[in-house]
Structure formats: structure tokens, C-alpha cells
Amino acid sequence: MRTLTRWVLAGQRVVADLSAVDEAVYVAVAATPTPTLDLRLRQLSTAANNSKISIAVACGLALVPGRPRRAALVGLASVATASATANLLGKSLARRQRPDRIAGKVPEARHVPMPESASFPSGHTASAFAFATGVASRLPWAAAPLGLLAASVGYSRVHTGVHYPGDVVAGALLGTVAGSVVAGIDEWWPGP
Known about the structure:
192 residues; mainly alpha
């Protein structure tokens, strides 16, 4: 029993230390003046609401028969999987409070509406990485541009003050796993 108690206490200390680092990085991002990026990252963060960017790219891919059309399907199935996992399971279990943009001194020029859901994990990031991973499983050439887009969406969520960096890292991992699982299932599913 004493060993278990020590492990629990050690785990709590690790979580507290990681949380302190997470908050420090959040404040450092907020304190870095980036007037040229502020508007564009705010627009990107807003455009990623409800996976609109992924849906638009999937619509474009769906117009091309064969592998691109199947990639669109795998990408959207990956988004659905990641979004459900992040928003229905992850956020309800973690219940992490959103960052305090005022205390963190996030410039008002960066603000987007603060979501009411829990902060951990980032659903926007999970969906973006899931889409990139799912599409890349069918179209390897799309991995770099969609991966860069997903990373940009994730960073935009920290830049606008609605997520801690740790939320984004967790979202990226969740999305990558979700996309990989859906791609693995797709390998066994009959089709083009």
C-alpha cells in the first residue's frame, strides 16, 4: 500500500510540474509580440471551427475519382472519430478549465470566442491531425501540407488564448492515433 501511495504522490508531482511548464509556455506565447500573425492566426482558428477546413479539402478531393475520393472519405471518418473521442470522452474525463486570457495577458487582437467546453484535449487540433493522417494514408504526398496545416491550427489555438500547449499536444496525438486507426480499418475495407 505504501508503494502505491508513493507512486500516486509522484504522479501528482509530475502532473503539477507539467502544468507549470504548460502555463509558462502559454504566457510566453502571449507575451511575444506578433502583430503580423495575430489576424491570420485568429482567422485560421475560426476557419477550423467544426472542421470546416478539412471538410472543404475533402470536398475538393472527392471531385477526383479513385484514390483522392477514398482519401477524402478516410479523412472525414478520421475527423469524426477524433472529434467524438476528444469532445465526448476526453473533455468529459479531464474537465480542465480553459486558460484565463486576461491573467495570461493574451493581447485582445488575438481573441476568438472562448469555447464553453473543457480545454483538454484540443478538439480542433485532434480533428486537423486526424484528417491529415487519414488523407495521407491514401495520398502520401498530402502528408506534409496537411500536417503543416494541422500544426498551424494547433498553434493558432494557443496563440488566440483558448488552449494551453499541452491541450494541443494531446489533441495532436489523439488525432494522429484516430487517423491511423481509421486508415488501418480502411486497409481491410473493400473499395478502390
